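task queued by scheduler; priority normal; single chain, no ligands, no partner chains; default sampling; output format set to structure tokens
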Amino acid sequence: MKKIALALTLTFALSLMAQNSQSLPDLVLKDMNGKPKNVSDYSKSGKITIISFWATWCSPCIKELRNIQPLYEDWQKEYGLQLVAVTVDNAKNTQKVKPFVNGQGWDYEVLLDTNEDLKRALNAPNVPFTVLLDKTGKIVFTHNGYVEGDEFELEKKIKEIAGK
């Protein structure tokens, strides 16, 4: 029994390490203006990158992105990072995304993952889901869900990566 438990623990730890060492897939999504963007390019930017999966119908997602907004400019200056908000709204709802984002005043780059291709590729269970990449483009942290204050925990991870 102990051997089985040890094997399962080791397998779980290795799968977490493997997940956290992966980078973004070579996948093209469109931005809010219909311009194609290859997601893997964010891995090559040399910046710490936050990928935040969200939807217009997801209250915790919206709360998370709203709470990050006042911190985002400082994060950009201090850590040289970028945030890409990836909506998983389906094709019927995509026309709502741009007016919604503009109404929020978000400065984030927004990509449309209408078929949830990126979400599936990164094994995101549901939204909100946050992925943090280091400057080399490797995934170093993931987080599912949102509760008030998670943005400060995210900043701690960003500081670690930035060496500050």
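post-processing summary
- The beta strands are 28-31, 36-38, 49-54, 82-87, 109-112, 129-133, 139-144.
- The longest strand covers residues 49-54.
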